[in-house]
């Protein structure tokens, strides 16, 4: 399962957000380093298309797709040199596929800030520097390890080393290698480096309850917005505190609550949707009477691989996939009519599955 990690300074609201997202009961507390071991939770992806499919197929069961969220310990200045929870923290970030960075944008004298004062840009830079330093260290080691092979004029080693040096130069200037242009081939090589600074990332601006109504009046949030714009990074506005309250309510009560707050929907869905995108995740469906179900796959996966997500036998014995695009189903109203109009395609093993495909795999083992 793919993983999104919640990262940030201590006491900025990571566990509160995590709890709201996963409705898990992780310890959220008003003191720095409340979290030590990472909390892991499963997030179900709300998808309106699933409800529409349920109306059409009238299944016994509807199953949404899911991915993993991990609530990581707070990071402090010097983490790359072992401060705070140091390397332990960094190794947990290495394991995630995408980073949701929680940035404190709420003023509250009762909630300690490890640096004494709320300043989201300083916080963002603190984290950036630590991640950069950690990567510089691992890149230097890698460059050194390649030295021998480079001397023997190994083409791969030379290419790899040049890439590493290029990334290191960028990090030395305190810039983000994430923003550089790489070819597909280079990206494949870079993937093996497992760099923290190459992981896709979004900022989550955690504001106070009042900040939700008039974000334009929250200078912290505005600062994050303009900083993120320069970095071409997305920002989600949220109040982890409010989300926590919403998440603890019954569904009917949730609506009343949202209305009372003048909110259209919970900000959590946006966090979930954006991180789903960030992870390069797409959804295909299986639909029948017993069950309508959403499945997550990675952009670019072919039909047999997608079948393998359900069961390895489906991949091993893959023959064909009966495929109907969700939009075609909507256009023609029922699977039957879509079929009569030639919209149910028989796709083979080279078919690149698209978001919204409704698939029926034929296999033989
Ligand atoms: N939007 C908000 N407005 C006001 N208070 C908040 C908000 N979000 C979180 N808090 C409060 O901030 C405190 C710290 O929250 P939390 O434990 O979630 O932080 P954390 O980032 O997980 O910290 P740690 O790194 O120590 O694990 C809690 O008292 C929580 O209620
Ligand atoms: Mg925590």
From TrEMBL:
<dbReference type="InterPro" id="IPR041706">
    <property type="entry name" value="YchF_N"/>
</dbReference>
<comment type="similarity">
    <text>Belongs to the TRAFAC class OBG-HflX-like GTPase superfamily. OBG GTPase family. YchF/OLA1 subfamily.</text>
</comment>
<dbReference type="Pfam" id="PF06071">
    <property type="entry name" value="YchF-GTPase_C"/>
</dbReference>
<dbReference type="GO" id="GO:0005524">
    <property type="term" value="F:ATP binding"/>
</dbReference>
<keyword id="KW-0175">Coiled coil</keyword>
<keyword id="KW-0479">Metal-binding</keyword>
<feature type="coiled-coil region">
    <location>
        <begin position="129"/>
        <end position="163"/>
    </location>
</feature>
<dbReference type="GO" id="GO:0046872">
    <property type="term" value="F:metal ion binding"/>
</dbReference>
<dbReference type="InterPro" id="IPR004396">
    <property type="entry name" value="ATPase_YchF/OLA1"/>
</dbReference>
<dbReference type="InterPro" id="IPR027417">
    <property type="entry name" value="P-loop_NTPase"/>
</dbReference>
<dbReference type="GO" id="GO:0043023">
    <property type="term" value="F:ribosomal large subunit binding"/>
</dbReference>
<dbReference type="InterPro" id="IPR006073">
    <property type="entry name" value="GTP-bd"/>
</dbReference>
<dbReference type="InterPro" id="IPR004095">
    <property type="entry name" value="TGS"/>
</dbReference>
<dbReference type="GO" id="GO:0016887">
    <property type="term" value="F:ATP hydrolysis activity"/>
</dbReference>
<keyword id="KW-0067">ATP-binding</keyword>
<dbReference type="InterPro" id="IPR012676">
    <property type="entry name" value="TGS-like"/>
</dbReference>
<dbReference type="GO" id="GO:0005737">
    <property type="term" value="C:cytoplasm"/>
</dbReference>
<feature type="binding site">
    <location>
        <begin position="11"/>
        <end position="16"/>
    </location>
    <ligand>
        <name>ATP</name>
    </ligand>
</feature>
<dbReference type="InterPro" id="IPR023192">
    <property type="entry name" value="TGS-like_dom_sf"/>
</dbReference>
<feature type="domain" description="TGS">
    <location>
        <begin position="280"/>
        <end position="363"/>
    </location>
</feature>
<dbReference type="GO" id="GO:0005525">
    <property type="term" value="F:GTP binding"/>
</dbReference>
<dbReference type="Pfam" id="PF01926">
    <property type="entry name" value="MMR_HSR1"/>
</dbReference>
<feature type="domain" description="OBG-type G">
    <location>
        <begin position="2"/>
        <end position="258"/>
    </location>
</feature>
<protein>
    <recommendedName>
        <fullName>Ribosome-binding ATPase YchF</fullName>
    </recommendedName>
</protein>
<dbReference type="InterPro" id="IPR012675">
    <property type="entry name" value="Beta-grasp_dom_sf"/>
</dbReference>
<keyword id="KW-0547">Nucleotide-binding</keyword>
<keyword id="KW-0460">Magnesium</keyword>
<dbReference type="InterPro" id="IPR031167">
    <property type="entry name" value="G_OBG"/>
</dbReference>
<dbReference type="InterPro" id="IPR013029">
    <property type="entry name" value="YchF_C"/>
</dbReference>
<comment type="function">
    <text>ATPase that binds to both the 70S ribosome and the 50S ribosomal subunit in a nucleotide-independent manner.</text>
</comment>
């Amino acid at each position: 399962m793919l993983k999104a990690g919640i990262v940030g300074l201590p006491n900025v609201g990571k566990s509160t957000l995590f709890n709201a997202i996963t409705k898990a009961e992780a310890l959220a507390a008003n003191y720095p380093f409340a979290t030590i071991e990472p909390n892991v939770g499963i997030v179900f992806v709300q998808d309106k298309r699933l409800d529409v499919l349920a109306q059409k197929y009238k299944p016994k069961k509807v199953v949404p797709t899911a991915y993993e969220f991990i609530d990581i310990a707070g990071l402090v200045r010097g983490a790359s040199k072992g401060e705070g929870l140091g390397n332990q923290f960094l190794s947990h970030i290495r394991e995630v596929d995408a980073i949701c960075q929680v940035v404190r944008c709420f003023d509250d004298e009762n909630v300690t800030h490890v640096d004494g004062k709320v300043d989201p840009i300083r916080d963002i830079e603190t984290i950036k520097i630590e991640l950069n330093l950690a990567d510089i260290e691992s890149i230097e080691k890698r460059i050194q390890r390649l030295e021998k092979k480079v001397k023997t004029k190994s083409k791969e080693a030379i290419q790899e080393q040049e890439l590493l040096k290029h990334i290191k130069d960028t990090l030395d200037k305190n810039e983000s290698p994430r923003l550089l242009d790489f070819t597909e081939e280079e990206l494949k090589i870079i993937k093996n480096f497992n760099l923290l600074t190459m992981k896709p990332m979004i900022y989550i601006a955690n504001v106070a309850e009042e900040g939700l109504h008039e974000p334009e009046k929250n200078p912290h949030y505005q600062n994050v917005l303009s900083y993120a714009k320069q970095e071409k990074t997305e920002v989600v506005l949220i109040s982890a505190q409010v989300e926590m309250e919403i998440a603890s309510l019954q569904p009917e009560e949730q609506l009343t609550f949202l209305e009372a707050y003048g909110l259209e929907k919970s900000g959590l869905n946006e966090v979930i949707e954006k991180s789903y995108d960030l992870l390069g995740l797409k959804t295909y469906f299986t639909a029948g009477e017993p069950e309508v179900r959403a499945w997550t796959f990675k952009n670019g996966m072919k039909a047999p691989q997608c079948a393998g997500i359900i069961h390895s036998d489906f991949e091993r014995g893959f023959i064909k996939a009966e495929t109907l695009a969700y939009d075609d189903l909507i256009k023609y109203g029922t699977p039957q009519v879509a079929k009569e109009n030639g919209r149910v395609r028989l796709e083979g093993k080279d078919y690149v599955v698209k978001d919204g495909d409704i698939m029926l795999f034929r296999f033989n083992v």
